[in-house]
Amino acid sequence: MAPVPPHPPAASQPGAAARSSGVHLPPFQELVDAHWRDVARLAHALAGPVDGDDVAQQAWLQAYAAYPRLTSARNLRGWLLTVTHRCATDVHRARARRAVPAEPDTLVAHGDSTPGPDASDPADDALWAQVAALPDRQREAVVLRYVADLDHAAVATALGCTPTTSRRLVSDALAALRRARS
Amino acid sequence: MNDPLTTALARGPRVGRPPTFPDADVAYAAHDTVVGRLLLARLGSTGPLVACVYAATADSEEALAERLARTCSPRVLRLPHVLDDARREIDDYLAGQRHTIEIAVDLSLATAFQREVLTTLAARVGYGRRATYGELAGWVGRPAAARAVGTALGANPLCIALPCHRVVGASGALAGYAGGLPAKEHLLALESPGARRALD
Question: Where does the pLDDT of residue B1 fall: very low under 50, low under 70, confident under 90, or very high at 90 and above?
Fold first, then answer.
């Protein structure tokens, strides 16, 4: 996994930080073209259809702000997905602080609203409602593993746990989803 | 193994739209004109034009973005709205309704020699006038370097804004042009006294 910078400042000077890191970074547009769908899918899977777009947009703005300070151009996809995960977690926490009704119910209730222009397969909607209803850590683990296609080491890094724990979270999540589908 | 659950998870939820950005360190856009497809780039949302080049091939856009990332800032984004005023000025110019591009230019993409040649050109060869490669070589103090001047003009990162189309061969032949000879011919005809419209 590429090193993840700390939370970038809200605004950065255009051009000022541009050539500070010394590594060659591809044009940011290249990252957008190559990865926006993956970022959007991850954001929606983690935050649900209501907050998904906001999380993805937020993740892109944060990535844009931090981009010139990256010290490696390896695994930019992994870096973007990590930023997205962090944004989803922030939104989720902010919501949990405010929310009175239980979060999963809210998300399930929205599960049948159409998330995109080419939606929607009812079976898919049911699946994502079930994913939304998983305990937080299980949802994050299974989504990072399968939707973001990160390996267990990367999932563990993103969750701040050991690979053994992340494997267990993923298998618990899969078991819960299988029960819900049967 | 083909587990329907993990396959469905890997497909992800259906999602709709790409992110939007208000501005960028370097914004670029393509612009189709009567002289061909141009790629325009500027620094910041209201900064100088840093590129106005002909999109010769399908990968011209990527090549320019890559060059801008190396030279100016990696935060390069395709943002057509940031280039709206530049596109309008170029359209007006190509319609004969203005004789200069007012937006400031930045020669970050040029070498020192190209800068010297291009700024001398812009200062000395006004609208509707022509110079030869040899004359321009003399003006920059290298009278024997007509060929090098031709190469420098060929690498002009700010076509039209810096009028390399006004430089022709000693015989009066058009010689070459990054946008192709028909484009050069079109620009020279547009600027010729007979084609001028009253601007005042």
Answer: low
A105 close contact with B: CB closer than 8 A:
no
CB nearest to B74's CB, from A25, A61, A120: A25
Supply the range of the domain harboring residue B141: 112-195
Residue B88 sits in the same domain as residue B156: no
> Which among A119, A77, A59 has a CA at the least distance from the CA of B20?
A59
Residues B90, B116 within the same domain = no
Q: Does a structural domain hold residue B63? A: yes
Do B77 and A41 make contact, defined as CB atoms within 8 angstroms? no
> Cβ distance B169 to B175 under 8 Å?
yes
Nearest to A18 among B5, B25, B77 (CB): B25
| Cα distances (angstroms) measured from residue B55 to each of B12, B63, B75 | 37, 10, 21
Q: How far is the alpha carbon of A167 from chain B, nearest alpha carbon, in Å?
A: 14
Let me know whether B59 and B116 are in one domain. Answer: no
Contact (Cβ atoms closer than 8 angstroms) between residue B23 and residue B82: yes
Between CA B105 and CA B84 the distance in angstroms is 16
pLDDT tens, position by position, B137-173: 999 999 999 999 999 999 999 999 999 999 999 887 8
Domain match, B121 and B189 both? yes
Residues B70 and B129 in one domain: no
Q: Write out the catalytic residue numbers of B.
A: 164
Q: In the prediction, which pLDDT does A98 show?
A: 73
Residues B79-92 pLDDT 10s: 999 999 999 999 99
Which residues does chain A have within 8 Å of residue B69's beta carbon, measured at their own beta carbons? Answer: 24-28
What's the CATH number for A28-181?
1.20.140.160
Write down the domain spans for chain A. 28-181
Q: What token pair was written down for B171?
A: 């015989």
Taking the whole predicted model, whether its pTM rises above 0.80 is answered as yes
Nearest to A91, CA basis, from A44, A39, A125 = A44
Cβ pair B75, B26 in contact under 8 A = yes
Per the CB < 8 Å rule, is A127 touching B8? yes
**B136 belongs to a structural domain:** yes
A179 touches chain B (CB under 8 A): no
Is the CB of B14 less than 8 angstroms away from the CB of A67? no
Count of domains observed in chain B: 2
Residue B132 φ then ψ, to 5°: -100, 160
